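Help needed: design a sequence for this.
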């Protein structure tokens, strides 16, 4: 196992030569850097589109589905964000690679359900982009369970996780969550609400920890409560992390990644010990 990017993501060295990646970017420097890095790391031949017309032609010329698009906000021929709108309208998963960051712009980008955005304003930008691409291409291996008695909350979390390409199951109660976990031992992360009518998040976590350890399942508790001691109680019940609603998207995804990275590292070490 190797580590990728600056977050410490574990990367098996797998190649993704079959992935079709579109890069909508007019900068020669960045197209060269990104193309070289993705070929070197993943054996991906990136399709470069320097103008909006190039992007449209690239989509039209092939019936092969686009796995992922990387797009600048503004392209020649699409100076007002039309390229991004075009990709979103086609339901193509998109990572925005931009040198512009303002609060209003960030809110507009996230409202479009993009996969991620990476800023060009630092020397790690291409490495961060490579990590984001790798996560998207491998997240489908992770099965996440959402437990919440609110249908709206379940739908919101589910859509967020599916945007990042995770496999998602949902449960409307603690009892249903225990059922699903028993039938799906590949679930590596559970995100559970604290306040539920049948079994609250604390009790659910305690019951799970009686048979399933943190080396098999990571648990993140969530709550809309203003009681800051809930996090301490949840962690003492066997949880691995805790977040208060409303979430900030970037923090939520970071916490999910950190817990899954930790799980993979633990499992990798256990395998190495078993072989030794």
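Sure. Designed sequence:
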């Amino acid at each position: 196992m190797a580590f990728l990017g600056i977050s410490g993501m574990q990367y098996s060295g797998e190649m993704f030569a079959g992935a079709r990646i579109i890069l909508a970017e007019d900068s020669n420097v960045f197209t060269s850097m990104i193309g070289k890095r993705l070929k070197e790391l993943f054996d991906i031949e990136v399709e470069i589109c320097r103008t909006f017309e190039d992007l449209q032609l690239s989509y039209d010329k092939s019936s092969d589905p686009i796995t992922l698009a990387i797009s600048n906000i503004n392209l020649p021929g699409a100076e007002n964000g039309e390229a991004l709108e075009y990709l979103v309208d086609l339901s193509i998963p998109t990572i925005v690679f931009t040198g512009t960051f303002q609060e209003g712009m960030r809110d507009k980008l996230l409202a479009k359900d993009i996969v991620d955005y990476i800023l060009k304003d630092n020397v790690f930008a291409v490495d961060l982009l490579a990590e984001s691409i790798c996560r998207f291409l491998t997240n489908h291996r992770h099965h996440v369970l959402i437990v919440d008695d609110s249908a709206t909350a379940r739908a919101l979390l589910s859509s967020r996780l599916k945007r990042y390409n995770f496999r998602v199951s949902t449960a409307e109660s603690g009892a249903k969550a225990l059922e699903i976990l028993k039938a799906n031992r590949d679930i590596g992360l559970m995100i559970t609400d604290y306040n539920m009518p049948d079994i609250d998040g604390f009790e659910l976590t305690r019951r799970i920890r009686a048979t399933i350890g943190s080396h098999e399942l990571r648990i993140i508790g969530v709550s809309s409560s203003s009681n800051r001691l809930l996090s301490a109680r949840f962690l003492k019940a066997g949880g691995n992390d805790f977040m208060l609603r409303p979430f900030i998207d970037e923090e939520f995804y970071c916490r999910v990644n950190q817990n899954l990275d930790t799980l993979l590292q633990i499992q990798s070490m256990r395998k190495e010990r078993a072989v030794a």
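Residues 249-275 form the longest helix (27 residues).
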